[in-house]
Amino acid sequence: MKWVYQCFGISKQAFYKRLATHQKSNQQEQAILNLVQQVRKEMPKTGSLKLYKHIKPVLVEKNIKMGRDRFYLLLRRHRLLIPRTKRAHITTNSKHHFYKYPNLVKQFIPQAAEQLWVNDITYIKTDGGNAYLALVTDAYSKKNNGLQN
Q1: Can you give the residue range of the structural domain that contains 37?
Q2: What is the 3-state secondary structure (H, E, C) of 41-86?
Q3: Which long-range contacts (CB under 8 A, 24 or more apart) does 144-147 make?
């Protein structure tokens, strides 16, 4: 063993101190991973920040010092991070500086067909991306106009 610490240019005492620190760190990480697995059994989709806040009192009780960032790195190293879900398309943005036209048909109630037409657009997720569906509907009869593009 003498040649190991001589190769790295450190003393025997420093070598064994590093070895003990490394072993202690591994034991603490294993204890944290066990805690994470216990919490994830009960709440499988718990995010990292909530998970950290949940097990922090136990870490303090066991005298394990680990910050949030190092906790994230540990979870990433062991592939325990929960992937973020992709947000759905946001179709309406009313918080803009352009002129907003008043709703002229807010109080209007159609009495017959073809007095008021309404339209809508929606996004449909497909394997090749997003498709758009635009509908024009008679507000009285609730029927589409039958136009084809």
Answers
A1: 2-77
A2: HHCCCCCHHHHHHHHHHHHHHCCCCCCHHHHHHHHHHCCCCCCCCC
A3: 145/117
Q: Beta partners for 136? A: 119
DSSP 89-119: P------SSS-----TTSS---SSTTS-EEE
Residues recorded for the chain = 149
> Residue type for 147, please?
L
pLDDT in tens, 2-20: 677 777 778 888 888 888 9
Claim to verify: residue 100 and residue 125 sit in the same structural domain? yes
Arithmetic mean of pLDDT over the chain? 85
Looking at the fold, whether 112 and 130 belong to one and the same domain comes out as: yes
How far apart CA 93 and CA 86 sit, in angstroms, is 19
Amino acid at 115: Q
Q: Which residues pair with 64 in a beta bridge?
A: none
State which H helix or E strand residue 2 sits in: helix 2-7
Same structural domain, 95 and 67: no
58-91: pLDDT as tens digits: 999 999 888 999 999 999 999 999 888 777 767 6
Residue 30 host element (H or E)? helix 12-42
